[in-house]
Design a protein that fits this description.
Length: 388
Amino acid sequence: MKLEDVKKIAIIGSGAMGHGIAQVCAVAGINVVIKDIKQEFLDNAVSKVKESLTFLVGKGKIPQKTLDNVMNNLLTTTLDTKTAVADAQIVIEAVPEILDLKKSVFKEISGLAAKDTILATNTSTMSISEIGAVVDRPERFVGMHFFNPVNRMKLVEVIYGNKTTDETADLLVAVTEKINKKPIKVLKDSPGFIVNRINAPNQALFSAILDEGKEKPCEIDAGMKETGMPMGPFELADYVGLDVFCHTLSYYSKTLSKDYTPGKLLSEKLKNNELGMKTGKGIYDWSAGKAVIDLSKKSTTITPMELLAVQLNEAVKVYKEEVSTSTNDIDNSLVFGMNAFMGPFGLCAGQDPKILTDTLNKLSERFNLEIFKPEPEIIDGSYKNFNK
Ligand code: 3HC
């Protein structure tokens, strides 16, 4: 299949990711159908897309005729899976992060889609190969991981499962460019892929910090925001949702290390339905629609240096495990997926390995977590010689 053959994309799931993906595909002129299990979910998705496009028209970023074309011609919805996928060239699944749910969705789709349809999952952490094992043609199965908010974050990770062909991945790279996003190939199917994996040990650190109770999240966020990050890490956790944050930690605890087991305080927040922005309260108060954060003071022991050292250490593992074999791709993933000013390899190009090593050892001792232990290439500084 060639890029010109892609006339219709089916999106399964109409939540924050699903309707965002639908919007960017339709704005690029592709017919899009969203499928969900309840009409109210679909109606909500359509009104969110309309609201977002109306905002863009108001800002002069898209013409009114694009909005009209999307709303009147390109975007449709359905409750029926067969109607959604039967004549689609690409199906993108964006249902909740529950492995069995994703597998059952693909089992059904595999029997209803045409033979050459490409099936893609927007999972943020889970194994592409394992989900793809349920479909008839796993060589046409691939990961297509968007970032939140989809309409503003440029990155799409295109992830190979163990059977994905280059032809399938290359077509999705071309589609990603057509919808005005930045594709980066993830060469090996590994938990969290590039961006989420590099952030994984910091997630464990934030959970441990909450349980330790000595640091104020707002003081850590204040330090990070001062470096130019658009959101502090605790603010971002609330923004993405503490349920998502905890589920990913649980997945890493089963697949990467027990050190990732979600802590007590986070688990309590989940139990109390304090999930962040979507419930009005999480680590911060979001009842006014934005987090209320006191940025007047900064932490002195958990500074941007600690978080950067942890990121770099994990980026070294990502490179060594050949999830990506280019430090530029790794850095760009962070730049385009999180609006970071620069990635960890770029930021640490001139860094003293001894400072990084001491920082990581201190964190490992303080929180009794092995995942922070410095990699040999951090200790001897040879991470600076990795392929660009
Ligand atoms: N559609 C398209 N563009 C829009 C828009 C919309 N609906 N609404 C606003 N915009 C544009 C604005 O026009 C503006 O563009 P401009 O700079 O050209 O004028 C730009 O988006 C920024 O808009 P705002 O001023 O409203 O937003 P902020 O400056 O407050 O930034 C943010 C918001 C982009 C979300 C920023 O805070 C950010 O980058 N945060 C980090 C988000 C992040 O890290 N996401 C990744 C999370 S991890 C993830 O998703 C993985 C998954 O697996 C869980």
